[in-house]
Amino acid sequence: MRLEADPNAERVMAVSGERGTRGRSRRRARASRGGDGHTAGITQPLLRMPVYEVATAEQVEAIHEVSLRILEEAGIAFYDDESLAILRSAGADVGDDSVVRFDRDLVESHLEWCPAEFVHVARNPDRSVVIGGDHMVFAPVAGPPYVDDFETGRREATYDDLVTFIKLTQATPYLHSQGTEIVVPNDIPFHERGLDIVYAHFKHGDKPTMGHYPIGMTAADSVAMARIVFGEDFVADHHVLHATINVSSPRRLDDRMLGALKVYARANQIVMLTPFILAGAMGPAAILGTVAQANAEALAGIVFAQMVRRGTPCVYGPFLAVVDLQSGSPVFGAAESIHAQYLAGAMARRYGLPFRAAGSYVSGKRPDSQSGIEAALSMFPSLLTRPNFVLHAAGWMENGLTTSYEKFALDLEMLGIFHRYAAGISWADDEWALESVLREVPPGGHHLGTDHTMERFRDAFHRPQLFDHTSYETWSAAGARSAEDRAATAWRELLDSYVAPPLDEATDEALRDYMERRRGEIDPEEFQ
Amino acid sequence: MRLEADPNAERVMAVSGERGTRGRSRRRARASRGGDGHTAGITQPLLRMPVYEVATAEQVEAIHEVSLRILEEAGIAFYDDESLAILRSAGADVGDDSVVRFDRDLVESHLEWCPAEFVHVARNPDRSVVIGGDHMVFAPVAGPPYVDDFETGRREATYDDLVTFIKLTQATPYLHSQGTEIVVPNDIPFHERGLDIVYAHFKHGDKPTMGHYPIGMTAADSVAMARIVFGEDFVADHHVLHATINVSSPRRLDDRMLGALKVYARANQIVMLTPFILAGAMGPAAILGTVAQANAEALAGIVFAQMVRRGTPCVYGPFLAVVDLQSGSPVFGAAESIHAQYLAGAMARRYGLPFRAAGSYVSGKRPDSQSGIEAALSMFPSLLTRPNFVLHAAGWMENGLTTSYEKFALDLEMLGIFHRYAAGISWADDEWALESVLREVPPGGHHLGTDHTMERFRDAFHRPQLFDHTSYETWSAAGARSAEDRAATAWRELLDSYVAPPLDEATDEALRDYMERRRGEIDPEEFQ
């Protein structure tokens, strides 16, 4: 993969210095503080292909209007007293049943404060990323309790697995955020896990990390540890963590998620609002209704984040798929999910918000053909929507319950193709190869040896590493290995290429001291 | 899969009765004769999603202009004396080296005669299809000498395999043309194969068939057999066969392909011009040059077809992929191929011609994850280009050298998803599910039992058949079968569902008489 030479550096500097403007609405938005030369070396990909628009402006407004009706008439439940107080004092209509109704002026006025793009600063400033605009960030899967590899099979994941996946994420050029709980470290008591997850990310990687945020207390530990790494003043002015705040659809934000949201927002960290909807279960068995509901839920959370702290960097992040209506099982890679994805992206653009798009979601239980097709049909359409952030871009298997080592490698192969795809079509003069086409190569000849080809043969086309393009005979002689089998080699080779990023001794020790102290303090009851 | 109730019937009648107009250019084109009530039952899919435009009108014109330079300055070799005479008398500049140069007026004036859409009539009139407009036709792979199945492995294909694949094509709702040589019947002497291939299609299927056309003589046998089936007068006025005419890129049409083209065009049958270019080998290692060269080659063939017979129904059909420039191997599912595909589609729309888009191409040697990803990345982007005809939509494996029974079933599964995808996003009132979203379902509730869901649970979402969406436990208890393994069951079940379409005794006997007579007459030397 030939990455563009620092295509983003200039842009990042511009973002750091300017007040952001939220796309289509052209209203001035609050500046997002982040980056100040710390981002000069960024190599994240830019999407240089146009957005695929499937809805008219009127249709987008129709979704917007139905969403406002949901917010005005039906409302969203906030199960947290402090949150309700914040909402009430900001002018929302809070019912006795904790259901909060928002009028459209309240929504519009708070959306004004959202930055259109911002920088997620990495421990290694060369690896900081921009979230927004035409910038893309791919992050690994988050949350699976199980892990699977070709040799051992499916089992409960451990801390060692988590560290291994952080190293793989650090080593590949195709993931730009380390994400969070790539697998659950089941061998650590659940109430202490957050500390170990955050430490593992800072210790073994230096790309942007999300922290850990199942409840407010854990989010606060993430922020505290980030302050140890970056310094307290720096964290106050920069975004160094990024939480996924799940809406428990339909129309509900619980105290855990609200707790985490408040902590991150107050600390000036990134908050991604993710209504999680399988249409037919948490939303209606209809795409328009599902997108409108998800939109209302995302807006409610984003508006609330602005009430907590004006200018909180927010990502518009609905997770939309469908269920098999006859069995209730989730279905990934479905046509209807692609349709929903297109519309959700259009809504994000409507509001000038960074968009989280679908990752390599599959229902498959093995990294087989089903998983390959589902992953491609889940994630390729994301590239058509201007995906600013893609969680679950690698490793997701079995409805998100398992992180597969082999699928991780296969997804990286696909992400490599997507990087080249996103780089767009070059219209440079030498792309016409006029001399070769018009004069040098005769009818029936070939271009393999032309000067034009020789000058470009190393990088004119992306070269896959794991996929096999040899002849049947060569492939057979090499053992007739399936892609899954080759992937089992590929991730080990990637792991061998891992280089530990330096972490100064004092910081490491301070992190470990913090963890040791907190292990004795955390009350497991907090998680009940 | 819920297919729309006859969405095309009205449209087909309109096409039959009207003079076609080639899209963007808005010039009047010659009427295409085809369909006259024989197409009332058509159930082929319509593409109800917008085209994805990646090039500006100026960029499309730039490709057009470079193509005209190739045609005017470099020219295209036609290795056939009669073709050269036709070209010369039509005003082309024919060189002593058989290289023909076309000036732009000659190109433009002959493109005027191409119908924008036309009907490919099937033996069963309910299965006739429209080629052009928003209509899509999916056909199986064509040409592999090998066949592969999960149990037996890879081997030389036989006539029995061909018949089995014709039956599978007949039985599935997701293929609308029977294609041609789905596998090579290696057990029949090569010079007689064409007869058996054409007979097998008419005998075992009643969808539209392409005939067989490696040389002019075989194409003539296809036409003769079609006349036996449809009647001589009917064939004169209707399109019942469809040839792929490969340009031997770069810039060369040989006597075999020209022979077949002349026979089909003179008989008023469909001619699809297919420059076959792996960029870096038969075209430059650059996408713009490759697309411009392919465009020039396709235009040359289409213009020639109009010289042979004004109004010949033509499909604009470039086959574009890339090579690994370090090994020379073909690479399918590549980012650059997707870019090329988008531009080729834009050129077809520029000329108002039906477009042939990429099928389920893979380099994989097994129906594994690589093949799944490559197939999805080859064919899903086709849906963004307005694909009027997709050859190789099912069964392609190993760079097109093998037809895989299991991949055939897996591709059909993907085509099922694509059918639903193509049906588009419904903006009907009940897609909002307003009553459920606003009032019926409380915060944290679910939509599984609402009236709205109950009314739609059978067909709100497409239901995959082969892909597994059960839990890990259920999947394990059922044998933990890979998708490839389940596909081995799926194609056998599809075969069991095959119902032989009636073919009247007299026609069958006449076809067999014709074959018997011709077997004694065909000189194998004709193929040298």
Number of helices of chain A: 18
General form of chain A:
globular
Mean of all residue-level pLDDT scores of chain A = 92
Terminal Cα span of chain A: 47 Å
Assembly type: homodimer
Helix proportion range of chain A? 40-55%
Description:
The structure is a homodimer of 528-residue chains. The first copy, chain A, has 528 residues and is an alpha/beta fold. Chain A is 42% helix and 12% strand. Chain A contains 18 helices and 19 strands. In chain A, strands 11, 13, 14, 15 and 16 form a five-stranded mixed β-sheet that branches. In chain A, strands 4-5-3-12 form a four-stranded mixed β-sheet. A four-stranded mixed β-sheet of chain A has the order 10-9-19-18. In chain A, a hairpin with an 8-residue loop joins strand 6 and strand 7. In chain A, helix 5 packs parallel to helix 6 and helix 6 runs parallel beside helix 7. The longest helix of chain A is centred in the middle third of the chain and has 22 residues. Chain A is globular and about 80 Å long. Chains A and B meet through helix 2, helix 10, strand 16, helix 11 and helix 12 of A and helix 2, helix 10, strand 16, helix 11 and helix 12 of B.
